[in-house]
Amino acid sequence: MAIYIALLRGINVGGKNMIKMAELKKMCEALGLNRVQTYIQSGNVLFESTEEESTLRKIIENEIEAVFGFSVNVIIRTSEELKKIVADNPFSEEEVAAAEASSVGECLYVSLLQEEPSSEGIEKLRVYQSDNEEFRINGREVFLLFGHSVRNSKLANNLHKLNVPATVRNWKTINKLVTLASAMEESR
């Protein structure tokens, strides 16, 4: 069985698309997913399954709509893929430290995409890159570095130009999910 992390897009934001994590966990367990656990209210679910990513995504998306009455995009990664995201961070320690020194709040984020973006989508996004807002793409991940803040960021607000379903997590959350997934692996 593989350990997966399902990342839900746009739940529990501004009082919309509200899902309690206990209810989400219960729903996932009812789907037959094993060792289900959630992490923070933004919709991160760790579990074990023998199913393929695309099958799991469809099942979870359909069940959320049936149980909670609204649709959300679900992005799925294996624990190994999340570890690779952390290992492959394209921004140097110096670049991150410089952004942290001037940023209000978190400065490093990852947009996790359902599929790799097209070159046309990347070019549309490149227009919004600046000295204070940079991105680098590695496969299905867009690494984002903000020198000021993600709030009101033109780059962050235009990620949809990639025309690929996605969800964004800050670097601390990505690392915490790796830690939780590693603990699941160790406790097998």
From TrEMBL:
It comes from the Bacteria. Pfam families: DUF1697. InterPro entries: DUF1697. This is Uncharacterized conserved protein, DUF1697 family.
